[in-house]
Amino acid sequence: MSVRVILCGACGKMGGNVLSLLMGDGEAVAVCGVDLYPKEIGIPVYKSFAEIKEEADVIIDFSSPIGLKERLEYAKTHGLGIVLASTGFSSEDLKTVDEYAKSVAIFKTANLSLGVNLMQALVKAAAQVLGDQFDIEIIEKHHNLKKDAPSGTALMLAESVNEAFESKKDYVNGRNGIVGARTKSEIGIHAVRGGTIVGEHEVMFAGEDEIITISHSARSKRVFAAGAIRAAKFLSGKAAGKYEMQDLLAEENN
Ligand SMILES: NC(=O)c1ccc[n+]([C@@H]2O[C@H](COP(=O)([O-])OP(=O)(O)OC[C@H]3O[C@@H](n4cnc5c(N)ncnc54)[C@H](O)[C@@H]3O)[C@@H](O)[C@H]2O)c1
């Protein structure tokens, strides 16, 4: 039987990409959507979860942190898994996610592409080898409509880098004014916004007389939509808990 999906943020850019991929997918189907601003998109779209009439297995969420609790509560009471692909969550939101993970299967990642998952491992390995001798800066670039900054992926990459260090580095978002000399205890994170850039991430290790750059460029949003559908299929029938790309890849490669 197909995995039945509720699409939260159905009328947005990512919602549209997921919906069009699901149209040609024999193993998963979109049964309805939820969006603050419903539009005609070929499936029923509701303004809130309370209005949903369809039965489902998984929620794919590409909306915003607003309404997080409503989404998680719906998943809990209806026994659904949820792919949380929205970004920009506060530390309070993350605590809520951890609390719900005790009773809901939650797949959460700020980046659903295979390439960025590999990049996380690469930047950690580079940081382990290079240590404090190289300054680490992260530059991310996105389209001019993106609401949160820095991107969830930039923060995820910063965390991967930090895993290499016993004494964790602080994140410094952009620099402005007389900030003084750069310290070894910082990771600079810079957000560029413009045009229709899908998503570029660069982790730069700047040493004396040499620079190593590890970068990823998403050429279309379809890569994330495809990842979300893979995650929804992976999550269907899973026990409560928190899952991420590495769990999915481990299962797919078994
Ligand atoms: N994890 C990933 O790999 C990945 C990839 C791309 C985008 N994203 C994230 O997905 C989210 C959506 O991106 P987008 O480009 O589609 O944005 P978008 O603005 O085009 O679409 C968001 C849609 O969600 C709706 N929405 C917003 N808040 C809502 C709420 N509380 N309840 C119901 N609907 C709501 C909006 O009306 C809109 O239609 C962003 O947070 C973005 O950063 C994540």
Counted up, domains total: 2
- By CATH, the superfamily of the largest domain comes out as NAD(P)-binding Rossmann-like Domain
Tally the helices: what do you get?
7
**Overall body shape:** elongated
- What oligomeric arrangement do these chains adopt? single chain
CATH architecture of the largest domain: 3-Layer(aba) Sandwich
Sheet-strand content, in percent, reads: 25-35%
**Largest sheet features:** 7 strands, parallel
Mean pLDDT, all residues: 96
Going by helix content, strand content and strand pairing, the class is alpha/beta
| CA-based gyration radius | 19 Å
- By DSSP, the count of extended strands is 12
- Which cofactors or ions or other ligands sit in this model? nicotinamide-adenine-dinucleotide
Helix content, binned percent: 25-40%
N-to-C span:
22 Å
Low-confidence stretches: none
Task: Describe what you observe in this structure.
This protein has 254 residues and is α/β, with parallel strands linked by helices. The chain folds into 2 domains: 3-112 and 221-252, Rossmann fold; 114-218, Dihydrodipicolinate Reductase, domain 2 (2-Layer Sandwich), CATH 3.30.360.10. Helix content is 32%, strand content 26%. It has 7 helices and 12 strands. Strand 5 (81-84), helix 3 and strand 6 form a beta-alpha-beta unit. It is elongated. It starts with a strand and ends with a helix. Bound molecules: nicotinamide-adenine-dinucleotide.
Describe this protein with a few key phrases:
Dihydrodipicolinate Reductase, domain 2, alpha/beta, Rossmann fold, binds nicotinamide-adenine-dinucleotide, 2 domains, 32% helix, single chain, 5-stranded mixed beta sheet
